[in-house]
Amino acid sequence: MQFSQFMPRFSANISMLFTESAFPDRFDAAANAGFRGVEFQFPYAFDKAELADRAQRAGLEVVLFNLPPGDWEKGDRGMACLPARMSEFRDSVGHAIEYAEALGCRRLNMLSGVVGGTERRVPPERLRETFVSNLRYAAGELGRHGMALMIEPISTRAIPGFYLKYTAQALALIDEAAAGNAFVQYDMFHMQVMEGDLARTIEANLPRIGHMQFADNPGRHEPGTGEINYPFLFEHIDRLGYAGWLGAEYLPSGDTIASLAWLRPWIECQAGMMAATHATATS
User: Fold this and answer.
1) What does the alpha-carbon distance between residue 271 and residue 149 come to, in Å, rounded to a whole number?
2) What residues act catalytically?
3) In this structure, which CATH number among 3.40.1030.10, 3.20.20.150, 2.60.120.260, 3.20.20.30 belongs to the domain 9-282?
4) pTM score, two decimals?
């Protein structure tokens, strides 16, 4: 395998990986497995200072997490498109920024929400207007803190009724909001379900993709368990010069460590490049 000077960086989503350990202990587990970045869904049940300390001691960058989703236990999957929740959504942005500042995280993901129940009676143009307004607001607040906002299309197989579900839809909403620090969070698992054509979509929209995530399909397990050709895609993304993070957001089919066979070639290549660089510098 030949890799470019950019070589994508892989982050572990510790909401889904290393669940053999308590959440705060997953930072060390990820670092010991070779990751240099972590992401997670929601940190708000934990003390932000403790999480920041665990990440720092493990030598990890906190790459990404989501804005508060509303009441997850009651079925909320974000609030950004829901007109009745605008005030709650905007309060949640400030709460997320507090955590991001403490954790040194520069990217936050805004979940669009589910159009279900009484929301089905809301006119589509009102849902779009609400989403764009909230996108513009959140991007502006994050921008004041030097942060970028992600919006993520999610498959309706994973979350029935999810408002944001296509790449082109996400790009159009960002354009309408005119938010220069807003980007697509491109999850290859979700987009394989909804669109396919992953390699060409990534190549065509790379400057507007702020973060990527992956899992195989079907099953949402580790690369190599389904239909997606991840060795090809990872090399393709590398050749394109993508300098961001690739988030391993999958459900391990067994033990987390055993599921990481896909990562080893990249760790070995990185070690080889570092050794070559050191040898050149000391020669």
Assistant:
1) 32
2) 152, 249
3) 3.20.20.150
4) 0.93
